[in-house]
């Protein structure tokens, strides 16, 4: 793998942000993703929007309203879009081949849902020896039966900070810390 960085934006789709599925700090997370996406574009690093494609399931059918990314996200014509069909964005998708083709070795990960698709993708990227930065304030989820969303996010940020990496590494940084690193 090369030494290029990429921003991954996972499942920030309309179907995941409904009145029945409220997410923690949606407006703040979207703003921080937009800020990072602009910075990545300015630095000529790829921004990759990953969307769950549930074609055939009746949910998140490609090009259906619930499949679309949130209107508040700033998506540029140069950004890439990749479909996924499981929690792990690498599973049966074009993500790994796209990253290899772009010479990417370092991932900055954002999105929804912290405890499902974000978590699975981070675990998978770690076993593929990527250098990973989880955007501490750039992922969200909803309340769960035994934990509030904010607790789920805090808990996963702690887990990721304490994971043993493979050949890559993993760290958890705020948007502002990342801006300081990249600029």
Automatic annotation (TrEMBL):
| UniProt xrefs under Pfam families | Isochorismatase (PF00857)
Q: What protein does this entry describe?
A: Nicotinamidase-related amidase
Q: Does the keyword Hydrolase apply?
A: yes
Q: Which domain of life is it from?
A: Bacteria
| Keyword Transmembrane carried by entry | no
Q: What InterPro entries is this protein classified in?
A: Isochorismatase-like_dom (IPR000868), Isochorismatase-like_hydrls (IPR050272), Isochorismatase-like_sf (IPR036380)
- UniProt GO MF annotations: hydrolase activity
Record keywords, A-Z: Hydrolase
What taxonomic lineage is listed for the species of origin? Answer: Bacteria, Pseudomonadati, Bacteroidota, Cytophagia, Cytophagales
Domain Isochorismatase-like as annotated: residue spans: 6-144
